Amino acid sequence: MNISSLKATGRIMISSALCAIAVAHAPIASAANTTEGPFTIKSVIVGGYGAHIEVTPAPAGCTADWSGTQLVVLKESPIYRELLAGVLSAQAQAKPLIVIHTPQGSGICSFGNQKEVVAIQIKS
């Protein structure tokens, strides 16, 4: 084996390891996540646990709400700022939103039981 092939093999091994690390730390890798939408954003309350979002139609299973909101982006999320920016951008442009979420508590959408947003897709 020559030096060039050793370097190429090393690059492939490093690339494979980095891809494995990225997949292992993906925020939406949980089997408990649900995709719903499209939703229209009616209001956003920033405070408390994070950003609380009121959408129409109501997500499946929501039999209650907190100040009209059903979804929450937790401020402890490592991608809180990115999700909040996306939600506010979708609201400002009146764009429909697809939401990937996991239930918090009972998932009925009351305070402490809202659906926790882990990813979004802004539709055109």
List keywords for this structure.
124 residues, alpha+beta, 29% helix, 5 strands, globular, 32% strand
Q: Looking at the structure, what is the overall shape?
A: globular
Q: Tell me the distance between the termini.
A: 53 Å
Give average pLDDT, whole number. 82
Uncertain residue ranges: 10-29
The count of β-strands is 5
Task: Characterize the structure shown.
Strand 1 and strand 2 form a beta hairpin. Strands 1-2-3-5-4 form a five-stranded mixed β-barrel. It starts with a helix and ends with a strand. Helix content is 29%, strand content 32%. The protein has two helices and five strands. By secondary structure, it is an alpha+beta fold.
Short description:
The protein is of the alpha+beta class.
Reconstruct the topology from this structure:
Layout: H1 3-24, E1 34-47, E2 50-56, E3 71-74, H2 80-93, E4 97-103, E5 115-122
Parallel strand pairs: 3-5
Antiparallel strand pairs: 1-2, 1-4, 2-3, 4-5
